[in-house]
Amino acid sequence: MADLLAKQGEEVDLTVGIEKAGAPLATAVANQLDTDLGTYAPAKHQWDEGDIDEQGGGFSRNFAAIRNRDCYVVDDIITSGTTMRESIDAIREQGGEPIACVVLVDKRGYDEIDGVPVYSLVDVVRVDREE
After folding, report:
1. Residue 108 covered by a domain
2. How many domains does the chain have?
3. What band does 7 get if pLDDT is binned at 50, 70 and 90?
4. Which range of residues forms the domain containing residue 29?
5. What is the pLDDT of residue 44?
6. ∠ CA(60), CA(15), CA(19), 5° rounding?
7. CA-closest candidate to residue 42, choices 66, 17, 79
């Protein structure tokens, strides 16, 4: 995952992991790329289902702050793209600039989300059978 992000050639100094499964992956990526580490908990992990529209996600105060920094975004899986899109928006709201995203598995085959390149180790491709 770190190798995929390193191809960006940017001087990025922050890696943001999307909790829950993305945070440990981001820890390894941040270590490999020698960046600071931040984490973002999306709304779906923080609130009851009916409260999600009223309450957003949040960044952990136990890790590095966004503070107008360029960053990478790391998660385990993209299923619909909603969580990655929310995370990109939250980073931008904090004044940060997401440079690239990386996931283990991309179930949708995204090349980019909201103008941010998406890299994955595995793309899931649906194959329809002719009858």
Report:
1. yes
2. 1
3. confident
4. 2-123
5. 80
6. 45
7. 17
